[in-house]
Model the fold of this input.
Amino acid sequence: MKIILTQVFVDDQEKALKFYTGMLGFVKKSDVPAGGYRWLTVVSPDDPDGTELLLEPNDNPVAQAYQKGIFDQGIPAASFGVEDVPAEYERLKAQGVKFTTEPTEVVAGVTIAVFDDTCGNLIQIQTLQK
Done:
């Protein structure tokens, strides 16, 4: 068994697509009309057949409360692995990404940083574990 799809709730799918592709560097995988919304996924350009991230429209009051609650408590909605957290932090910061946590070593060999995705979520980047 393996993870093939995960999701983050977003307040605006088009804004989310621009952020996740333009700022973070993911690539669009699926974009299928689904009623008034879209089945909209992105993937890592390094693994185009890997795990997809669904940019799920947040039109559900329960999901909205959950999203706001974890955001307000500073809990990341997702975590992405990067080779060099400080370098990725500087790259994203230079593009205008707002971080809530600067690069911090949490255990030996694991560094994290947390940013606001502008769509209602905090996202963590962390050192890729080999």
User: Anything to note?
Assistant: Residues 1 and 51 are 13 Å apart (CA to CA).
